[in-house]
Design goal:
single chain, mainly alpha, Ferritin, globular, binds fe (ii) ion
Length: 398
C-alpha cells in the first residue's frame, strides 16, 4: 500500500490556529463597532453599524460552534501579540470615517481573502463544518465590503489606513503566515479611544430634552400616532446604550455579547422603522429634535445599571402603551402602523427576556449579592424618579 501525502496545506493544528485568529478578529471588530456606535455622528453610519456588529456576532457564533468541536475552551486568544496589537490599535482611529476605512478597507478585505484561501486548502470532507461556516460568513462579509466601498467612496486613503495596513503586515496578515517586516509599524496617528458619555449626532439634528420619559399621548389620534413614530425614530438612543454596555462588559460570557449584539441591532431597526414611517407620511425625521440627554443620563451609571434601566424600566413598561396604539390604529384601519408596532413588540419581548437572563450574571460579576428582584425593584424606582419624571439628572459624583 502507498502512503499518500495530502495536497491540502491546512492540517488540523493549523486549522485550529487559523480559526482562533478569525474568531478573534470578528469578535474585536464587533466590539470596536459597539464602542464607536455612540461616538459616531452620521446617522446612516450608526444605522449600518448596528447591522454590521450583529453580522459579526453571527460570524463569531459560526466560528465558536466549530471551535468548540475541536478545542476546549473554545474561546482563546490568538497567541500572537502582533495580531492583538492590530485589533487594539484599530479602535484608536482619529474619527468615524477612518475607523470604518481601517476595518472595512484593510482588515476585512484581508479576512475575506483568508476565508477564501482557507476554503480551498482545508480537508473538504473531514472539515466540512468549517467550510459551511465560511460559506455563510462570506455572504455577509462580501456584502459588507461592497457597502464600505460605496459609503467610503469619497473618503481618500489617509495615514490611518496605512498605519492599520502596517500593523496587519506586522502580524503576518490575517493568517499570520506572511513574512513579517522587520521594521516596526508606526502607530502615532490615532487617538486613544474613550468610551463615549455623549451620543453624537450630525449637524442635521437639533438636540433637546423634550418630554423625555413622558408617555407621548394626545387626544387627537393622528397626533398621537405621529408622536409615537417620532419616538421610534429616536430609538438610536437605546441602541447606543446597549452598544456601550457591550463595550463595558468584555468579561461577560459570549452568549451575553451575542444576545446584546442582536439587541443593539434591533434598536437600530426600530429607529429605522420610525424614519421609514415618517418618510412614508412625508415627514423629514431629521427635523425631530434628538433627546441625546437620555443617553448621557444613562451612561453615567455602570453597565449593569444602564442595562437594567433600559430592559426593566423602558422595555418592560412599553407594552401597555403599544397595546393601546394597536387598538387605536385599528379604528383607522392603519395596517402599516399596526404591523410595525407588532414586529417591534416581538423584539421588545425578547429584550425583556435578555434582561431577566443577564441581570443576575452582571450582578454576580460586580459582586452584588442581593436578590435580583430587589436590585431590579430599586433600579426601576431610580428609573421612575429620574427618567419618568423627565428630570434626567446628571450626578457629577458618579
Ligand atoms: Fe426598541
Ligand atoms: Fe428594546
Amino acid at each position: 500500500m502507498q502512503t499518500i501525502l495530502p495536497k491540502e496545506q491546512i492540517d488540523f493544528e493549523t486549522n485550529k490556529r487559523l480559526l482562533n485568529r478569525y474568531r478573534f478578529i470578528e469578535y474585536e471588530s464587533l466590539r470596536i463597532l459597539a464602542g464607536w456606535l455612540p461616538a459616531t455622528a452620521n446617522m446612516e453610519l450608526k444605522l449600518a453599524m448596528g447591522r454590521l456588529l450583529w453580522e459579526d456576532a453571527q460570524h463569531v457564533q459560526h466560528l465558536y460552534q466549530r471551535l468548540r468541536e475541536v478545542q476546549t475552551p473554545a474561546f482563546r486568544p490568538p497567541d500572537d501579540p502582533a495580531l492583538e496589537h492590530l485589533m487594539a490599535q484599530a479602535l484608536n482611529a482619529p474619527n468615524e470615517w477612518d475607523l470604518l476605512a481601517g476595518l472595512f478597507r484593510v482588515i476585512k478585505p484581508a479576512l475575506v481573502d483568508a476565508y477564501r484561501w482557507h476554503s480551498g486548502q482545508t480537508f473538504a470532507n473531514p472539515d466540512a463544518p468549517t467550510l459551511y461556516a465560511f460559506k455563510h460568513i462570506l455572504v455577509d462579509e462580501e456584502e459588507q465590503l461592497r457597502w464600505a466601498q460605496a459609503v467610503l467612496a469619497d473618503h481618500p486613503v489617509g495615514e490611518w489606513e496605512k498605519t492599520v495596513a502596517e500593523l496587519l503586515a506586522a502580524a503576518g496578515g490575517v493568517t499570520g503566515q506572511a513574512a513579517r517586516p522587520t521594521r516596526p509599524a508606526s502607530d502615532a496617528v490615532g487617538k486613544p479611544f474613550v468610551p463615549p458619555r455623549q451620543a453624537a449626532r450630525d449637524t442635521r439634528f437639533s438636540l433637546v430634552n423634550r418630554k423625555a420619559g413622558q408617555v407621548l399621548t394626545d387626544p387627537d389620534i393622528f397626533t398621537r400616532r405621529q408622536l409615537e413614530f417620532e419616538n421610534y425614530s429616536q430609538e438610536m438612543l437605546a441602541a447606543e446604550t446597549v452598544a456601550l454596555v457591550i463595550w463595558l462588559s468584555p468579561e461577560m460570557p459570549w452568549e451575553f455579547t451575542y444576545d446584546s449584539a442582536r439587541h443593539c441591532y434591533d434598536e437600530t431597526r426600530h429607529c429605522k422603522l420610525g424614519i421609514e414611517w415618517m418618510a412614508q407620511h412625508g415627514i423629514d425625521y431629521t427635523r425631530v429634535p434628538q433627546n441625546t440627554r437620555i443617553y448621557e443620563w444613562r451612561s453615567q451609571y455602570d453597565a449593569l445599571t444602564q442595562y437594567t434601566l433600559l430592559t426593566m424600566g423602558n422595555e418592560v413598561h412599553a407594552f401597555p402603551y403599544r397595546h393601546e396604539s394597536i387598538k387605536a390604529y385599528s379604528q383607522l384601519d392603519d395596517k402599516l402602523s399596526i404591523q410595525y408596532i407588532t414586529y417591534d413588540m416581538a423584539d421588545e419581548r425578547t429584550h425583556v427576556i435578555y434582561g431577566k437572563r443577564w441581570i443576575p450574571e452582571l450582578m454576580a460579576r460586580q459582586g452584588i449579592d442581593k436578590p435580583a428582584e430587589q436590585f431590579i425593584e430599586e433600579t426601576v424606582a431610580l428609573w421612575e424618579k429620574e427618567y419618568r419624571s423627565g428630570l434626567l439628572p446628571l450626578h457629577e459624583h458618579l
